[in-house]
Amino acid sequence: MGWSTEPSWRSPARCRGLGEYARCALLRLLLAVLVLLLVPVGAAQAGIVRSEDVLPAGQSGFVSANGGSPHLYDQLPLFVGFQYKPADLGGGGTGGESPRPGVRIGRDAYGVPSINGTTEDDLWWGAGYAVAQDRLAELELFRRRGSGRLAEILGKGMLADDVVARRDYYTASELRAMLARVPAELRARFRSYTAGVNAWIDHVRQAPDDLPLEFSALRIPLRPWNVLDSVRIGVLLARTIPTGDGNELPNLAALRAFGPARFRSLLPLRVPGQVISIPARDGAFPSQPGRTHAQERRAFARSARFVRSLPLAAANGTAAGVPTGEEHAAHAIDVALGRLGGSFMWAIRRPSDGHTFLVNGPQLGYQAPSTFVELDLHGPRTDVRGGTAPGVPIMGPGHNDHVAWGFTSGLSDDNDLYAERLTGAGSRRYRFRGRVRSMSCRREVFRYRAGDATKSRSESLCRTVHGPVQARARGVAYARRYALWGREVETITGLAALNDARNLNEVDGTLRQVSWNENIVAADDGGHIGFWHPGLHPLRPRGWDERLPYPGTGEAEWRGLLPRSRDPHVIDPRGRNWLVNWNNVPAAAWTSGDAPARERLNGPFHRIAELQALVRDAAVEPTFESVGVGAIRTNAVTATQRPTASARLQAAAQGAPEPAASVLNTLVAWDGNYDRTGPDGTVEPGVATWRAFKAACQRVALGAPTRAEQGLVGRPGYEGFVESTLGETYALRTLDVRGLQRAAALAAADLGARFGTSDPAQWREPRAMVSASAQGLASPPPIPLINRGSYEQIVELGS
């Protein structure tokens, strides 16, 4: 049977879907009048009640021979101590500087700039100037990431990333064409921002002490900023942070390794018990409307037959490489922009007074400096504060004076891989819809640093009608089709409107303009909360399976894109005063496609299950503290799958023989906390026991995985104790009591060998620490491992 969408009457989609424009307009008018009549004269002004945030390690990335900015690491004590700083609009302190008439930049105690512009041009000029002050070296690294020129300064190890950037993204002429389609006001914003960055670059040419150390240490020439540099960063953000390239080729290898039945069990279109963000009563939101389960079964059988003849291939550079050893002698800099991450967010409405709360923590890792930079912006039409990526003239997660919003990676499958059958000599010709076509190819020269020398190599980069060719093998070229191809910059238009939204109805309209697949949770000062899973979602061919490569002959083409009104979304869910997302599946009928993020297949063991319980409890009597730091603190130091496993662990522990009983009883007694330590600095035995037990569960359920199998289920123990591999969560939800006891006995043997004792009380290990990913030459100290955001905000709204 198929799925249907049943949007809430509170959703604007209801009126559009019914086509009752006149009736809905009249209803909205009457409701507006009623609200005005009910508001007493002299009622308190609605707006932001309280706003706090934290940006580890700090606002600045400026490192010099003499040390650098005092704001490199000054937010680390706040972060480690679960404390936050004020994040008020206009909170940039007094005084400041005026680098040109019409621009005033003040900074608070943590160096966060509050930028005031007499005109919008002044404002965005000031934003570019302030970001360059704080992150000039990071801007250089980011534009090189976007343009495919990191290897020129960081060495051969970055060549794979450079190939991806030039192969899968756009030429300068294509970027200019994309920018030309942006509204004139936003094009002017790009130019103003660029001029501000260049004003600071002009300054450091005259004041060398203000030039970041990275430029001399890496021998980077100081070049002017260009509008297209910002566009490239925007494209990179839209393509990589919300979701990644598909896993069709690893899935093909896994299908051959596991066989069809086990493959479908490990990678179902919908995982039994999956935890969703939109309550089912507010809409199922099928990703492929009208497709039945019978069609899905037939499509899988057809695709499985088709891919039998396909050669396996490793996609050339589709995974971002982390250079090591001699290939990366350039100070171990790791440019994280463009890496897929995770994030958490939730919104709660307090019934007693209608106040709303928004919490967001984008998770891109512990970085120095962060991929985020904080700004407080004020102009004739702009009042907004939050975090954004250096280089783009837009605000990411943040708030204005009426609405707060947060982002998490959507992780939906918005691209597909096509197997093009090559024909003739030269491997640049292929068949499509009965005709022989020629690929569009160009040759690019890639330069890379090798010690004091510069070397180069050239690559032929080709496209078919479906998109860039990412891999080749034995007469087949694999080309990827992207739903948002050529449309990434549209997201800037939508986010600019989001920054100005005054209520959630306006938010809803703005998010139909974005092309990327970031989840959004928002709250307004009118007492409303909402969730959206927007983007350009393909309507796939019903006769082919979305988890595997499609034939490129023209018989498996998309049927279009999902209508934007059918994007998963809800405003004010019925019977519930909270919404939460941690990169989980958005709605009941949504599928995970080829699972670009394997975590979406964890079903009831997805990390969202524990967070949902925390948010649900916080929503009973919500306060700023309980909704914010209270929930964040508990979530940050709890092994995410352990609470979900409680009932199964208790059942397995009953009557378990030794040595399995020692492992299971240790886990039953442990609540999942990996922060509590003894006098010797070691954590509770449950930490090491949980990691060993999960790994043993995967081995019992699936055996020792081959390399092909690891591409789907992961390597046992790889995720440590905080998260779990797909193989581990599959085992935790499918093993019976006897299987869990077998796993516990294996874990007991592993733990005994590791610690030299069978006494669980001695299975203690040091508290885990984490070092920062260096996006420059900053080197903050290691900090305790905590499951936190790279930038976190907590906002209360109301009157």
Provide a descriptive summary of the structure in words:
There is one protein chain. The protein is of the alpha+beta class and 799 residues long. Helix content is 34%, strand content 18%. Strands 3-4-8-9-10-11-19-20-24 form a nine-stranded mixed β-sheet, with helices on one face. Strand 10 (398-399) and strand 11 form a beta hairpin. Helix 4 (120-147) crosses helix 10 (227-240), helix 11 packs across helix 12 and helix 19 packs across helix 23.
Defining traits:
799 residues, alpha+beta, 9-stranded mixed sheet, 6-stranded antiparallel sheet, 23 helices, 29 strands, 34% helix, 18% strand, globular, disordered N terminus
Topology:
Elements: H1 13-18, H2 21-38, E1 47-54, H3 76-80, E2 85-86, E3 103-107, E4 113-117, H4 120-147, H5 151-154, H6 159-168, H7 172-180, H8 184-206, H9 213-217, H10 227-240, H11 248-258, H12 260-266, H13 293-307, E5 342-349, E6 356-363, E7 367-368, E8 373-378, E9 383-388, E10 398-399, E11 403-409, E12 415-421, E13 429-432, E14 435-438, E15 440-450, E16 453-463, E17 469-473, E18 476-482, H14 490-500, H15 504-510, E19 518-524, E20 529-532, E21 538-539, E22 550-551, E23 560-561, E24 569-571, E25 578-581, H16 608-618, H17 624-636, H18 646-653, H19 660-669, H20 685-702, H21 707-713, H22 726-734, H23 737-755, E26 769-770, E27 773-774, E28 783-784, E29 792-798
Parallel strand pairs: 4-8, 7-27, 12-22
Antiparallel strand pairs: 1-2, 1-29, 3-4, 5-6, 5-25, 6-29, 8-9, 9-10, 10-11, 11-19, 12-18, 13-14, 15-16, 17-18, 19-20, 20-24, 21-23, 26-28
